[in-house]
Amino acid sequence: MHEITITPEMRSAAYQKVRHLQFNEKRGLSKFGSEKSRTVVGYIGEEMVMDFLNIEINDDDFNYDLSYQNQRLEVKTISCKFKPYPHYLCTVNSHNLEGVHKQSADYYVFLRILNDQSKGWLLGCMPCNEFFEKGKFVEKGATVVKGVQFVKANATVLPINQLYDIGKLKGL
């Protein structure tokens, strides 16, 4: 897990990306563009990964977020109140009725960002197919651990401590 200080430039770049988007809370929480604050957090996560891996161009494709050494990266970022513990879960939601949703990416990269956006953590990464092989599928409405219930969508979860260090990507 790599702790990263979020710079004003990272925040500014994220806010610039959301300026052109239309947000509508009536679309439902499971739809992109329903929550501006979550979208900003996601873009800050992308900025953190770009900085860590020295990526200069953000592809911003629907099926993946970034390209790095011919690999398509899907960045999964959520906000938090404190540094996450290694047993905390990383999640990939699936809003379709068949269960697992796989985007056209090669790797998932997981991050957590403090609510005040002062710092965050690059939790790790994993090839997408491997994530679904190792992860636990959780149906919408199910409780995965005490106090954690998935109310928006089906999901696949895996503890942070089972991810690969993001440095693995540098060796591709």
Key structural traits:
3-stranded antiparallel beta sheet; alpha+beta; 10 strands; 172 residues
Structure commentary:
It is built from four helices and ten strands; from the N terminus they run E-H-H-E-E-E-E-E-H-E-E-E-E-H. By secondary structure, the protein is of the alpha+beta class. The protein has one domain. The chain has a five-stranded mixed β-sheet with strand order 1-6-5-3-2. The chain has a three-stranded antiparallel β-sheet with strand order 4-10-7, with helices on one face. Strand 8 and strand 9 form a beta hairpin. Helix 1 (about 10-20) crosses helix 2. The model is unreliable at about 30-35 (pLDDT under 50).
Sketch the topology as an H/E string, one letter per element.
EHHEEEEEHEEEEH
Indicate the percent of residues in helices: 10-25%
Shape: globular
Largest sheet: 5 strands, mixed
In spatial order, strands of the major sheet run: 1-6-5-3-2
Strand content: 25-35%
Gyration radius (Cα, Å) is 15 Å
Instruction: Classify the secondary structure makeup into a structural class.
Output: alpha+beta
- Low-confidence parts, pLDDT < 50 over ≥5 residues? 29-33
Number of β-strand runs = 10
Number of H- or I-type helical stretches:
4
Distance between the termini: 19 Å
Number of domains: 1
Summarize the structure.
With 172 residues, the chain is of the alpha+beta class. It has helices at 8-18, 36-53, 128-134, 167-170, and strands spanning 2-5, 66-68, 71-80, 89-94, 107-114, 119-127, 136-138, 143-145, 148-149, 154-159.
